[in-house]
């Protein structure tokens, strides 16, 4: 008796062997159903992922081209701007290009990384020693302010703005440790140019410039 005929019988009419055959058939059908669902899901997933990744790769390539073209053209106009007029300018800082209709502009910003070399370690030792030995005993509030300028970030680097605030108090004390510490701190400083950042901006309906977002997470 084939399986279709067995399926027409009630469970009471089936022998143990026939019941096992029916159950085996149902398990097979369930397995095949699950496999079809799996293949359908994976097919749709892989199609969508392939589409998205292909688009992402296309955008990546266009972004790289945009960056290359932007840098090249901004360098060209920077050079033209430097030579504009009778007196040459050699500015290396950021600048902007504004379209004649005043509705779009491109801004270039220097992307720099302040760093302090090994001399800063000795500088901090001297400054800390002076602040704890002398200033902390005389003026607790002043001590807290000055020591706060020397707090490092999570990467273990000094904060540029905080160090500049500390240096603004250079003439406050004549202690040799303070003077030498600040001198070493200044000598240890350098500013590394990582590159340039570009902002593409368009004028909105209210006349204000808005950045054209090229950062995926900012959209």
Fold and architecture overview:
This protein is α+β, with helices and mostly antiparallel strands. It contains six helices and four strands. It has helices at residues 3-8, 16-82, 119-138, 140-148, 160-167, 176-187, and strands at residues 95-98, 104-116, 189-203, 209-211. It has a four-stranded antiparallel sheet with strand order 1-2-3-4. Helix 3 packs antiparallel against helix 4 (140-148) and helix 3 runs antiparallel to helix 6 (176-187). The longest helix has 67 residues, at 16-82. It is elongated, with a radius of gyration of 35 Å. It starts with a helix and ends in an 8-residue tail after the last strand. The mean pLDDT is 88.
List the helices and strands and how they pair.
Layout lengths: L2 H6 L7 H67 L12 E4 L5 E13 L2 H20 L1 H9 L11 H8 L8 H12 L1 E15 L5 E3 L8
Antiparallel strand pairs: 1-2, 2-3, 3-4
Class based on secondary structure composition and strand pairing: alpha+beta
| Biggest sheet statistics | 4 strands, antiparallel
The Cα radius of gyration reads: 35 Å
Please report the number of helical segments.
6
Unreliably modeled segments: none
The SSE string, one letter per element, is HHEEHHHHEE
User: Largest beta sheet: what is the strand line-up?
Assistant: 1-2-3-4
Tell me, rounded to a whole number, the average pLDDT: 88
Please count the beta strands (DSSP E, at least 2 residues each): 4
First and last CA, distance: 65 Å
Strand % is: 15-25%
Shape: elongated
Helix content: 55-70%
């Amino acid at each position: 008796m084939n399986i279709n005929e067995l399926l027409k019988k009630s469970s009471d009419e089936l022998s143990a062997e026939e019941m096992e055959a029916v159950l085996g058939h149902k398990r097979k059908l369930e397995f095949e159903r699950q496999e079809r669902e799996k293949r359908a899901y994976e097919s749709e997933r892989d199609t969508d992922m392939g589409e998205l990744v292909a688009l992402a790769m296309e955008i990546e390539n266009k972004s790289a081209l945009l960056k290359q073209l932007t840098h090249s053209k901004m360098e060209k106009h920077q050079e033209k701007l430097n030579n504009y007029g009778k007196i040459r300018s050699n500015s290396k800082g950021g600048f902007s290009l504004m379209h004649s209709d005043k509705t779009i502009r491109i801004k270039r910003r220097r992307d720099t990384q302040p760093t302090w070399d090994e001399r800063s370690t000795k500088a901090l030792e001297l400054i800390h020693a002076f602040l704890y030995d002398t200033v902390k005993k005389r003026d607790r509030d002043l001590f807290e302010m000055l020591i706060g300028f020397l707090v490092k970030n999570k990467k273990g680097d000094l904060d540029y703005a905080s160090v500049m605030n500390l240096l603004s108090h250079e003439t406050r004390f004549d202690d040799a440790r303070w003077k030498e510490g600040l001198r070493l701190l200044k000598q240890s400083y350098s500013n590394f140019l990582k590159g340039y950042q570009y902002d593409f901006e368009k004028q909105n309906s209210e006349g204000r410039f808005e950045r054209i977002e090229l950062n995926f997470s900012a959209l």
